Amino acid sequence: MAPSPVPAPGRPTAQPSGPASGHTSGAGIAFPRATRPAELPSVHGALVCVALPALAVCAEHGQLTGEGPEGVYEAGRRLLSRCVLRVAGREPVALQGRMAAADRAVFLGVLRVPGDAGPDPALTVERTRSADGTERITLRSAAARPLRLPVEVALGTDLADLGTVASGRTGPELAASVHGTGLRWTGADGRSVAVTADPPPMDSLAAAGVLRWEAELAPGAVFTLRLRVRAESAARRAGSVQAGSGRPGGHLLAEALAEGDDPRPGELLRASVEDLRALLQRDPAHPADVYLAAGVPWRCGPVTSEALWAARMSLPLGTRLAATTLRALGRTQLSGGGPESGRLQGPLRDAGPHLPPRCTGIEATLAFPSVLAEARRWGLPSADLEELLPVAERCLGWLLRAAGRHGFVPDPGPAGPWRAETQAHAHRAALLGADLLDGCGRPGGDALRDAARTLRERFRREFWLDDPAGGRPAVARAPDGRRWPQLGGWAAHLLDTGLLGGGRYALGLLDRTQTEQVARLLGAPALDSGWGVRGLGTKEPGHNPFGHRAGAVRVHETAVAVAGLAAAGHEKEAASLLRGLLDAAEAFAHRLPEMYAGEQRTTGGRPVPHPAACRPAAVAAAGAVQALCALAGIRPDVPGRSVSVHPLASAPLGAIRLSGLVVGGEPFAVRVGRLGLGMVEEAAEGLQLGV
Questions:
Q1: Residues 526, 537: contact at Cβ < 8 Å?
Q2: How far apart are the C-alpha atoms of 136 and 419, rounded to whole Å?
Q3: Geometric angle at alpha carbon 259, from 255 and 262, rounded to 5°
Q4: Where are the beta strands (DSSP E) in 142-238?
Q5: What is the pTM of this model?
Q6: pLDDT tens-digit map of 547-596
Q7: Which one of 37, 156, 233, 586 has the largest count of C-beta atoms within 10 Å of its C-beta?
Q8: b/e per residue, 460-495, with b = 16+ CB within 10 A?
C-alpha cells in the first residue's frame, strides 16, 4: 500500500535517505529533513478491519457515511466511502459494533416493524463487513405475522487516495452507472470500482446510487444480502494481475496460545497474532518477500526499521518473517566505497523536544546484524543465513567506521550528537555481530568486541550523570562534552542486550550499580504511568503526555523495558510494567495502539487514546508477544542444540502456559507454575532442555 504523504506527528516520511536524497547534509552526507507534524483524523473510536493491502474503517454503528476516514480501502485508495442501509425507509437502531477478527467486524441493530404497538423491536439487523469490503446483511424477523419490507442500500465513493482523506481535501462523490447486479464508478484517471449484490436488486438507481429489494419474511425467517466491492483497472480488465499479489500466508507466524490463571495474556496474545498477520504485506517488486506494515491506517508504506523491530520481537512465532523482512530491508543498503557504504537507508524521525531528528536508517543498520544473530539462535535456516550474512557484514563494517576514534556512533550525521539509545543499539550489534561472525566461521569478531569494549568503557564514564538520588544516564552527549540530562523511556534500551550462545545475554553498556539505578528509574512514577513507560519523564522540561517522544506511552518501548528488566533480574519493576500493559490492553479491547497518552493512572481510570496513533500497529502487537514471553524467559540456542527457560520467579500473573511457539522450526510449549518454576512441555527433538 502506498504511504500517506501526510505523516503522523513524530513519524518518518516515506522518503529514502542517503546521498541521492539531496536534502540537509552534514560533512557532505545528505539526509532527509524531518517533516512538520500534520493533523490526522482519529481512528481510535473506529473499528478497523485489516488484511493488507485491504482495510475498512467503520464507525461502531456500522453505516459508512463518508465522514472522515470511513470507508473501504485497497492499496491506499478508498474504494467505497458510503454504504447506508435503510429498511422500510429507516436506519436500524445501532446496538453493538465489535471486531470478530482482525479482518472482520460485526454490527447489530434492531427495528420496530410498522404496526407494532409496544416498544419491543421485532426485526434484528446483523451486518458482517470484511477488510476487502465484502459485506453480509441479514434481517431476522421475530414478528408474529409475515412481513414485506423495502430494503435499500445507498452507495457512493470518491476514489480518493489515503493521503487526501487524511488531509480532509476529498472531492465530491463520483457519478454511478448501473453495472451487472450493482453499480460502478469511474474516476478521472481511469480507475474504477464496482459493487455487486446477491441476490440481484429489484431496482438499481444510478443517479441516487441506490440498490433496492423487497424482503419477504415469514415469522422466524431471515433475508440475507451479500455485497462485494471490487477495484478495477485497465490491467485487471485485460486479465493481467501481478503474480504473487495475493495475501501472504498465515504460516509466516505461528498461532501461539497463552492459558493460565489470568485470562488477559491469552486474549492479548490471540489479538496480537491476528493483528500481525493482518499487517503482513508483500514487497511490490519482490512478492516473495513479506514484511509488516508499521501501522494502519497511516503507515502502510515501504519496509522500515519498525518492521525489523517487530520481526525481532516476533521471533518466538518463527523465524520466517525475520528472514523476509531482513531480505527486503537489505535491498536498501548503500553500496560503493564511501563512508556511508553499508548503511541502510531511512528517513529522519522526530526525537522529542530536546534533540534534533534521528535517522531511522542508522537504527535499522544497527538492528540488522542483531536480528540476524538472534534469528540464528531461534533456528533460522542455513540458506537464509548464508544469503543475509553479507548484508550484516557490511552493516558491521559501517558500524566500525562510524564509531571511529571516538568509539561512539553519531546520529544522524558525523557531527552528532551521540545518543545513548544509538550507543545501546551499536553495542548490542557489535557483540551479537561478533558472535554471529564467529559462529559462521567469518573473520571480524575480535575487532567488533574491541569496539564494544571501548564504547562500553567510555559510555560508563561519559554518559553517566551523578546526583544525590543515585544518578542517571544522559540521553545524549555532544562531541564538545555537552550532555542532555532528560530522562525518558529510551533508557529501557540500555537494558536490551540480546542473546548469545548457550542462552547467555550479552554484556550491557552499564555496570551493575548503574543498571540497578536505571531499573529503579523505570519503575518510579515519573516514568511508569501505571499503563506503561512514558517517553519523557513527568519532571522533565517539555513533558507532554501526548508527545510521541515527549511523554506518551510507546508500547514497544514498554515491552523492551519489561524484557530488559526481567533479563537483568529486576522482577518487581518488570512485573509492574507488564501488569500495566495488560490493563491498558484490556481497555483497548486487546488491540494495543502504537502509543497512548502518558497520563498518570488513577483509580477507575482508563488509558487515554492518542488521536494520531495507528491501531493496529506492528511494534505494539509484536511488543505484546515479547512482553508475554518474558514471563517464561525463553533462551534458545538452536546452533548449540539447546533451549532453556528462566521464568520470573515471582510468577506475577500466576500459572501460565505458552504453546504454539516455534524453536528450531518445531512447536515449542512451556509452562510456568504459581511458584515461578518453568517446565518445557514440547520442543524439537534433539534439543537439550534446561532451566
A1: yes
A2: 53
A3: 130
A4: 147-156, 176-179, 182-186, 192-198, 203-205, 210-217, 222-232
A5: 0.91
A6: 989 999 999 999 999 999 999 999 999 999 999 999 999 999 999 999 99
A7: 156
A8: beebbeeeeeeebbbbbbeeeeebbebbbbbbbbbb
